[in-house]
Design brief:
Order of helices and strands: EEEHHEHEHEEEEHHHHEHEH
CATH superfamily of the largest domain: ATPase, nucleotide binding domain
CATH class of the largest domain: Alpha Beta
Number of domains: 2
Distance between the termini: 28 Å
Radius of gyration: 20 Å
CATH topology of the largest domain: Nucleotidyltransferase, domain 5
Strand content: 15-25%
CATH architecture of the largest domain: 2-Layer Sandwich
Number of helices: 10
Number of strands: 11
Shape: globular
Oligomer: single chain
Strand order of the largest sheet: 5-4-1-2-3-6
Helix content: 25-40%
Amino acid sequence: MSNLAPARILAIETSCDETAAAVLENGRILLASTVASQMDIHARYGGVFPEVASRQHVLAILPVIEETLAKAHLTLENIDAVAVTRGPGLAGSLIVGMNAAKGIAIGTGLPLVGVNHLEGHIYSAWVYDSGDMPAPEPQFPLMALLVSGGHTELNLMEGHLNYRRLGATLDDASGEAFDKVARMLGLPYPGGPSVQKAAEEGDPTAFKFPRAWLEGTWNFSFSGLKTAVLKEVKRLEGRPLPVADLAASFQAAVVDVLFKKTMLAAREFEAKEIIVGGGVSANKPLREAFLTQKEFKVNIPRLSLCTDNAAMVASAGYYRFALGHQDGLGIDVLPTWPLS
């Protein structure tokens, strides 16, 4: 937004198992980003081990921040505010990032802005690299589909920082369903990329898995679909498991529901565009479904910004800083965001 004051934001993200920092200028121009992944460490457990995650954050947080500032060729003297993920996420992981951000803010006198992790996924759609052509400004109202390991929800966004949650998952999030189905099929963690890769060799019509449309609401449900996959796996016990066909049929069911319900909601609320954000937005069939339709302009973050990162936190943090949505302590309470 050209009428907002320019600012450089240093952001920190430690909500789960990525230790990340980024420097963003004016809400959208990415100057530097660093992500230290713990994926290999947690793969042996088949999922994120919270205590291990928090310990790894402690080891990585300062080197990641220092590397990010070095990449941007900046020091803390060139930063206008510090943004940090304050939730939702793993408590132990969040504490590491929050304490680092508070320490920087206290030591430098910089304002501290708390950012909702889900809000960050929305704002990641407008981030672009320094030197690239600027991405178009968002057009409101817009329909935001958030799809991740912990959340699946539809939000009508009527302006910057102005959200109306229409519906959410009643049970498993879409990313969680991918992880659980991957385990059923003997595929490695993380489940989303593993299922997608297996599905490339499969037939998406091989199994008629259910779609929970929950008509009359904008809610989602994936537990029935997950159970249907489990029943097929048990039915086929003792025979070679058609992993590719099972993966492709499951994936098709998830994408079908996410895509069609979002399109219906966008029409119903006369949205000008659609945003798809969160880790599951990296799924190729889901991206293709949205990007090949011609009815709505769709913003989906580039792949490196789909999973957890600090650039998205910096973007949301900039708008909260520039628009003054902070309380007296400098920690944003996000009164308009429905925490789930």
